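Input/output pair, single chain:
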Amino acid sequence: MKIPKNKALELINEKLAQFQKILAEATYENRYNEAYELAYYGTETLLTELFSKEEAMNFRSSVSSGFTVIGGTIDYTKELQDYKDHISSCIAQLKVYRERIQNFWGTNKLETAIKSIIVPFISMSFDVSDQDINQYVTGILKSLQIDFKTGERYSKESIPQKVQSRIRNSDLFIIIFVKRDKIEGGGYTTPSWLLKELGIAQGARKDIIAWVEKGIKDIAGLNYEKEVIYFERNNAKEMERATIKFLEALKEHKLI
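Output:
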């Protein structure tokens, strides 16, 4: 199916408006109601029509939400916040698709986007607790059809030669700094192997984009204005700002 660019943007904007209304009116009682199902499953159908079934599945995995049960009792506050975060992720991802359509589609009909020849390396924590932010960032890249490489879980004492080679051979280094241990004087540390991987990238003079969780003290002298994107994973507004800045950084590095 070939869909004019203006019509595709109109359909994406309709879904954005639906999700924004759902977020503004969200309560514990009206979570996952009929309006939500119309917006969410309608978005999956729309993405299948505009792009592919695989793209719809990428959307689903990047905005997936869970539920919290503590000792058999539902944490209502956490459940509502998780729902709002899920809706905010849907909004952010739709904005990414809108950006993709605006940048890559012709005026009159859908055109297949040309994949970027720049292949970044993504440095990330492999702890289960950090999979949400990992999936969020990589989900943006997948939705923009940007291929990327990652490392692997390994001993924190040393970085395997294979991972070092991937970093040195990459075109761009993207790192996701996450909070780890609380520092007595205030703030948090970040996993040491992330700093080591950053050091390899800096030594190889790679361009860098760094997602930095607010509260982390040491980010190895990165350029705050050009290279750092601060985020709070449980703050929808901050995640939206971070997403916009990330898209701007990807544009600057000619990935979109």
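The longest strand covers residues 172-177. The radius of gyration is 19 Å.
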